[in-house]
Amino acid sequence: MRGRAKEVNEIVSQVVSEVNSWPRERQVSVLEKRWPELLESRKKTEERKTLPPLKNVERFEIVKTRFAPNPDGALHLGSAEPIIFCDEYAKMYDGRFILRFEDTSPDVKTPITEIYEWIEEDLEWLGVKVDEIYIQSDRIDIYYEYAVRLLDMGSAYVCTCASQAFKEFYMAKEACPCRSNSSEENLERWMKMLDGTFKKGDAVVRIKTDLEHPNPAVRDWPALRIAEGVHPRQGDKYRVWPLYNFSCAVDDHEMKVSHIIRGKEHEVNTTRQRYLSDHLGWEFPEIINIGRLGLEVGVLSKSKIRSGIEDGSFTGWDDPRVGTLRSLKRRGLQPETIREVMIQVGPKPINATLSWDHIASVNRKIIEPRARRFTFVRDPVNLKVTGILGEHDVRLPSHPDHPEWGSRDYSVRADKGEAEFVVSGEDAEKMKVDGFARLMGLFNIEITHLGPGGIHARFHSKSHQEARELDFPFVHWLPSGVGIQARVVMPDASTAQGLAEEECQGLKEGSIIQFERFGFVRIDSESPFMAYYTHR
RNA sequence: GCUCCGGUGGUGUAGUCCGGUCAAGCAUUCCGGCCUUUCGAGCCGGAGAUCCCGGGUUCGAAUCCCGGCCGGAGCACCA
């Protein structure tokens, strides 16, 4: 066959062109008769993409996932990735989704009181079904119990070495002097951590691991330390706080988490936590490492957003320039969009950079069928048209695919053949003398004069078809004197100003509309009218 | 430096575990056409990838093996 590829190629192209010349009905009927399976396989590709199956589900009674944020900043698009995966899997396997606030760092990543609520709101907005909620700062006594038990077992010790000194020991794969202390001695030192004899930085509880471990960061890692800051929920009730690896490992076991979906930056932590799990003889959950998600535009980093708010360069956690869920919501992004995009990316260990174009496209497919159309004339410029014959009644449909939604009707009556309009500044700039344009839905004009007072034009023709054939630019317009003042906050936080149709006044906050030839926007405030730009 | 993980069109992904049906699917992007009174929306069509490089195994590799290059994450008394 290979040797006669040329001949084969010729025959194939002959047959293909013959079949292509058939009408569609004949093509389909031949297929149905002779190869019906080919028609079926076409449907299959249309199925919605889903997440790959979870591994080792049978190891656990029930699939339990958990999302464990630190409430020190609002959730952002990057946070949405593990959230969606956890939620999807919990639902897929009839399991449970746990929300766990990891607020055990009063000194370094101080929790913010209102963020706890925001996170719950954002989760609800995303359509996540939360089955259990825990707050780690309410569970300190549980961590203390385990600490005492490990100290008593000889699996942990209280280390009073300065961190630099300790580092030298572990880099040399050597034990620090504290490691060999008796459990009595350790328990005594533990009491000194609790009662304030030891000050911040004086002592830390370490979990014994393997001093020979190739990764130095794994060797005898710290589990609890002294922090003297005031906690927003607990005040100064506690001075010894668990570190991430300790509270996390304890809770994942206590809460019977089956599958941990976490960023791959936690890989070393997984290794650390296995040691604790082994000391206590626990089953270790399945781990799924996912890559970091970047957004090509918009700031995702919590600390950057926080400092930007503090220095005034951002207006708040929902500034349009930041990638928080609150900001995306305010801009009109739909929760279904976020879910779909995350499923498309999938739980993989590679770092993906999401393009805004792609997100916008997914979102557009969702909002386009339900967005009513309106006119918004940005930076209005006057346009006087002469030579108009008769009256012109215009019906602009609220949605081209939904005639039942009604229309916006305008009756243009010319006074001595003249009528005045406004068009957007951007369109006006493109107009040249002797150029043409079509006022959408109305009629076509020929530009006669450009002046400081506006644009002068004369009536050219009525037909839409003609405008298309002659390739006239289509511009949107409003009759002079109608419309309400409107502002649209753009993605860069600048504001577009102009006139919107009066009907916009009645729109409820939160509704999504399309300003024709401008873009989709979400109504942020009815009066005064203000919207946020979603995407084109 | 050390530990680990990746490299498929401009971008994001499918396929890689269990080699062939993959000269590679989907989406985005760009271009063209259509919507017979609406657009930058929608619908239809087209363009765009020697599957990081080199070698090996095999009748056959994006898929397996070895080497290289490039990129990322981690190496806190943060989470």
Description of the molecule:
The chain is α/β, with parallel strands linked by helices and 536 residues long. The protein folds into 4 domains: 43 residues; 234 residues, 3-Layer(aba) Sandwich (Rossmann fold); 71 residues, Glutamyl-tRNA Synthetase, domain 2; 164 residues, Beta Barrel (Ribosomal Protein L25, Chain P). Strands 12-25-26-27-23-24-13 form a 7-stranded mixed beta sheet. A 7-stranded mixed beta sheet has the order 21-18-19-20-14-17-22. Helix 5 links the parallel strand 2 and strand 3. It binds one RNA strand of 79 nucleotides through strand 5, strand 6, helix 9, helix 10 and helix 13.
CATH architecture of the largest domain: 3-Layer(aba) Sandwich
Mean pLDDT: 85
Supply the number of structural domains: 4
**Total of DSSP H or I helical runs spanning 4+ residues:** 16
Q: Per CATH, what is the topology of the largest domain?
A: Rossmann fold
Order the strands across the largest sheet as they lie in space: 12-25-26-27-23-24-13
Radius of gyration over all CA atoms, rounded: 33 Å
Which residues form runs of ≥5 with pLDDT under 50?
Answer: 1-25, 35-47
Tally of DSSP β-strands: 27
Q: Under the CATH scheme, which class of the largest domain?
A: Alpha Beta
